[in-house]
Amino acid sequence: MASALLERRREQMFPKLTTAQLLRLQPHSARHATKAGEILLEAGDEPRGVFIVERGSVEVLVPTSDVRSETCDYALLNVLTACDFSGEMNSLRGAAGLVRLRVREPGSVLQMSLEDLRRVVQNDAELSELFMRAFILRRMGVLESGHSEVTLLGSSRSGDTLRIREFLTRNARPYVNIDVDRDAGARALLKRFHVGHEELPVVICRRGELLENPDNRRLAECVGINAPRNDEAVHDFVVIGAGPAGLAAAVYATSEGADTCVVDTFAPGGQAGTSSLIENYLGFPTGISGGALAGRALSQAQKFGAQINMAWHAVRLHRDQWPYAVEMSNGRLVRGRTVLIASGAEYRVLDLAELPRFLGSGVYYAATHLVAKLCDGEDGVVVGGGNSAGQAAVFLSSYCSHVHILVRGPGLAESMSNYLIRRINDAPNISVHTRTQIMALEGAEHLERVTWTAAGGAPEERNIRHVFLMLGALPNTRWLQGCVALDERGFVKTGPDLSPQDLKGWTLPRAPYLLETSVAGVFAAGDARSGSTKRIAAAVGEGSASVQFVHRALRELAEAQHASAVAAT
Questions:
Q1: How far is it, in rounded angstroms, from Cα 164 to Cα 154?
Q2: What is the DSSP letter of 486?
Q3: Of 75, 125, 277, 424, which has the fewest CB atoms closer than 10 Å, so is most exposed?
Q4: Structural domain of residue 493, as residue ranges?
């Protein structure tokens, strides 16, 4: 199997180590003699670091489970020979491997553990660049191959099918998608697995486990997105949310030696991760997608050793005892000496009774590539007048025959960047409807019709099957009620915004730092913070800036704990 990416960038995906580089790696490795046919690593197993070939050869094989024929085969991705090394991003993360490593010709390999691999990429600049580029490109190569042992059976008209596809795609997890509405062999598959249409979607995981419409947490466990966790661990820094603020904090904290754990409900990047193209972010003159920006930040955080957990939903901050504990929806506790609230915001919704049943089946909160393909050649509606709405409309205009932007105000200038307004005005297939609101959504299983009304006008009914809601957001802070001080809109109050009433339980002799909440050592950054600028660059800046305060708070809280213990004796 030779993907286009492999052919273009083979030397970067599978670089040869020099003699000098091998000598530097030997003290971090253990030599292991190999024999033909030996399996060094099986797909789905926990990674055992990386293997460096000294003599002989090792096959890199991608699982190609064929649910139609009930067979599990492997496609050859590459053959590693002397001075080649194995591994991809999961090797650094400690999550389940995506490939099988099988010895072709006997010889010997050097095995480098996860801990030693991280030590090398953090301390050796030359080898760090070599390994990181190879790992990132290899993950891209596996994704491009179209092969996986994970199969999704679902309907393109199903909101849950779309949710699962988005979850796997945004977490860069390879999978095979079979659309039961279009695949000629889908009926036989459903019969063989004893699955009815009402039970769709189903995910067939590695080793044949079948999940009926799994939630994100169950799906993440089945496909091995997260590394195994030590529930007894106490981290220096716990980050709630892997959006721009959370990932920036994780990169800076881990690079400065803090043991950091990041949890998120869905995928890296938060809402910013769904942006099709960000053109006003510093350092990217040609623009960068939100997914690509999040992927780069995630790779950096993993390089420095951050522990990343997706599909983990925080439900409570336990602040009564230090170190603190954040309770997850699955009952697990993540303990940390300091905490950053970077849980972002939730999408604002229209007050329409029909809306919930069309979510994912005609009504969407993000204009991703997966969704854009669903409305190829059809009309679409974007509701909202901010930058996210503008970016979505411009992006969708390349897919939709026509895009209608609906805004309640008199125009776009109050809330949208000028460069986006110019693009919209110049696009022949984008129309802006001012002082206009959606009044009704209609359809059977999928959205079929939209009715909107302009101020002073009569209702207009359009046969439109795709609506994108970009109405701004509300803070994702309900889980913090009674834990930290919130403002009247639910945003987290920090620093000088905290009143004496908010600080009645304050435990340190100093005032809260700029990004610190009403609980010492608990910080907030990004969209969830009261008074923050709702821009990606601002969120990155706040997440980065929080780290300097985290280091001070770690020292102060430890000293206070010690003083309390001494006084008690």
A1: 10
A2: B
A3: 125
A4: 234-346+474-568
